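Quick question, first post here. What does this chain look like in 3D?
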Amino acid sequence: MTMVEGGSMAGTRYALVIGDKNYSSWSMRPWLALKSCSIPFEEERIRLRQSDSKAEIFRHSPSGKVPALKTDIGIICDSLAIVEYLAEQHPDAALWPEDREARAVARSISAEMHSGFQTLRNDMPMDLLSSLPLPEMREVLENNIRRVIAIWQDTRERYGKDGPFLLGAFTNADAMYAPVATRFRTYGVPLDQFGDDGTAAAYVETIYAMPAMAAWTEGAKAEMAARANS
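> Answer (accepted):
Ran it through. Tokens below.
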């Protein structure tokens, strides 16, 4: 178990159960939300792709999946449920925009990422530290990529004037889309060939410039080094 430092939040104790940082896109989402907003938490990592991984996950998460957030009211499973809970518990962190319209858009696109883009997930699985060839560009995969780019362009144009993130300041929407930014880099996606006017490419750079993202990446490097030496 690793304690991740952050600002104090009275009355809260969290432990976030995650998978490997190189592979677990769903784990990345609440981890970035917690870290970016300086909400203190303990990290419990389960090594994936092992014979006992599933059993180990079930020891911590009744859903049999990571991430899971251990709280004083019980265990919260699922990335979107976790970041929603954090937004409620820590309103000062502004994990959803204050503006009603922007907040509705942020929730909408977060839910779309949560439930959609299945082909992108399957054909371009997260492999943070690797550089991999672009997979066969089936129509459904192309449509997924174009839709992500369109979302990023629309939110940046309409709500992103006051900062570099999708809705200006960092929100849960950025936590939800950050793993896609890593996929675009891992697979060398030529974003301009899918309708990007430069907005999506700049947003990928914004995600990688986050101190929380740098910390996650360093953790991934340490984990992969440990795998290589085991």
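The CA atoms of residues 143 and 194 lie 9 Å apart.
The chain has nine helices and five strands.
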